[in-house]
Design brief:
The complex is a heterotrimer of chains A (237), B (223) and C (46). Helices cover 79% and strands 0% of the residues of chain A. Chain A is mainly alpha-helical. The longest helix of chain A has 48 residues. With 223 residues, chain B is an all-alpha fold. Chain B has one domain. Classes of the chains: A mainly alpha (237), B mainly alpha (223), C mainly alpha (46). Chains A and B meet through helix 4 and helix 5 of A and helix 6, helix 7, helix 8 and helix 9 of B.
């Protein structure tokens, strides 16, 4: 089974914690106060970083699905499932933080701004993916169907992105308009560090979730094995 | 039996079955008209608002009626168990896909042919233009393709047809946006060139989604 | 203004910790079940 001292996991955890702390201090101490929006704009860094991780998770699920269909090896399905769960959490963070940012800046909790909208679409796809897994009993069929859905869903995301962007450019919100935010060099630095920190965090959590899934499946197999042996020797208990 | 003949065989069988009972297309039509009515009451669609809302209401109605037909068509397949007999060689998988998808496209097209004039009259919107017909064709093509793939998945789950809208709707976001925007433009007397961007998006969507569906369908119907 | 900023960062921390805790809690439950089975039967854990 798995060793209880997971060095790689530990290293990842330390690196990502450090990364997040560094990013956090940059967000509040290094990045300047934005001209038009003020301090609320500081939501931007982690908001974009979460949206990025949400997309990254989706991409990983897409690739894992392809490899699973090609090889039929369970660990790729474990990777796909784990990536969806982590990605879902991050895309939810992106949507909620985007909403909380919209309220003070544009006076409304929701705006059909392209980035926010595409994050919402991805969120819904994640949820549909997980729902699909829930309603299939056979593990191999579940893995196969989930892989197919993950692949089909992912290819629509770039297309959704373009469609939403063009849609919003024809009908720009009178409220949000162009959405001006003056980006300075320090902001770019802070954003990059946030992206790296969140990516490390993603891999840390991904690894933990995968180990959890492996343990869970090992336990299920163990139980089945015991059922099987109990059936064969009824006088045992 | 060659590939095309297999496709035709599956397609013809679905058409024949439907011609015999006519239950699926009539259900889709009745549902569409009821949906149209419901939208009109719920959104209070009169006059200018009706014309502006026409493309959106049209496509939402087509989408939901489509899920009815898709679910029914794939469920029928499952019940008859014919697919197992057809799964003799890998080449057959894509033949099954094309056969089923063409059948679903045919049913959706029949429904749309009835709906378009109806919408044109009720919403006073000039929908019976060649441009709009092109958009309908492109949109239905993509919708039918991804719908066939996802319906094949949905009927094999515990929740069956209920899963289809859940799986399908997030994936047709680009198609719906492009189709509605193109239709709306054309209704407002835009030229085909002006809505060209949306048409190109529809074509790209169709190509991508048909390719993915054909490539992955085999994994859905295999045992 | 600061309310939204604080709330947003609360969301980042909250969701992250909820996720970490959820994984940790599930892992603990599984380890407990495995230990219980081991104790019960002395079976070899593959």
């Amino acid at each position: 089974m798995q060793e209880n001292n997971d060095t790689v996991g530990l290293v990842l955890a330390v690196l990502s914690s450090a990364g997040v702390l560094i990013a956090l201090s940059m967000v509040f101490l290094y990045a300047p106060r934005e001209a038009t929006m003020g301090d609320v704009q500081r939501i931007f860094y982690f908001h974009v970083a979460s949206a990025w991780v949400g997309f990254l998770g989706f991409f990983v699920t897409f690739m894992a699905g392809i490899v699973y269909l090609a090889r039929q090896e369970r660990r790729w399905d474990i990777l796909a499932l784990s990536s969806v769960e982590i990605g879902l959490a991050f895309i939810a963070m992106a949507v909620v933080s985007g909403s909380l940012w919209a309220r003070p800046v544009w006076g409304t909790y929701w705006t059909w701004e392209p980035r926010l909208t595409i994050s919402a679409v991805q969120l819904l796809i994640y949820v549909s993916y997980l729902m699909l897994r829930t309603v299939i009993e056979d593990p191999q069929q579940r893995a196969r169907f989930a892989a197919v859905y993950g692949i089909a869903a992912f290819v629509t995301v770039p297309l959704s992105w373009f469609a939403i962007r063009w849609w919003r450019s024809i009908h720009p919100d009178i409220l949000t308009g162009g959405g001006g935010m003056a980006m300075t060099v320090k902001m770019v630095h802070t954003l990059l560090v946030s992206l790296v920190a969140f990516t490390l965090l993603y891999f840390t959590l991904l690894r933990q979730r995968m180990r959890l899934e492996q343990a869970s499946q090992a336990l299920a197999e163990l139980k089945e094995y015991m059922w099987h042996t109990a059936e064969q020797s009824p006088q045992r208990r | 039996m060659s590939f095309l003949r297999k496709v035709w065989a599956i397609f013809a069988r679905d058409i024949a079955a439907e011609l015999h009972t006519r239950e699926m297309v009539s259900a889709m039509l009745v549902f569409s008209v009821l949906a149209l009515l419901t939208f009109s009451f719920a959104l209070d669609l009169r006059g200018e608002m009706a014309r502006a809302a026409a493309p959106g209401v049209l496509w939402v109605t087509v989408a939901f009626a489509g899920t009815l037909g898709l679910s029914r068509s794939l469920a029928r397949e499952q019940q008859s168990g014919c697919i197992d007999g057809l799964l003799l060689a890998p080449v057959d998988r894509s033949a099954i896909f094309f056969g089923k998808a063409l059948g679903n496209l045919a049913f959706m097209t029949v429904v749309e042919l009835v709906l378009l004039p109806l919408f044109a009259v009720l919403f006073s919107a000039p929908l019976l233009r060649p441009g709009v017909l092109l958009v309908m064709a492109l949109g239905t093509l993509g919708y039918g393709a991804v719908g066939t793939l996802l319906a094949a998945i949905a009927v094999n789950t515990r929740a069956r047809e209920v899963m289809l809208p859940i799986l399908l709707l997030p994936l047709v976001v680009p198609l719906l946006i492009a189709a509605v925007q193109a239709t709306a433009g054309l209704v407002e007397a835009a030229t085909l060139a002006e809505v060209g961007g949306w048409l190109r998006l529809l074509v790209v969507y169709d190509l991508v989604i048909i390719a993915v569906s054909v490539l992955t369908f085999g994994y859905v119907v295999e045992d | 203004m600061p309310v939204y900023l604080v709330a947003a960062y609360g969301v980042f921390w909250g969701f992250t910790f909820a996720l970490v805790f959820s994984i940790w809690a599930r892992q603990r439950r599984i380890e407990r079940e495995i230990a219980a089975i081991r104790a019960q039967t002395g079976a070899e854990v593959r």
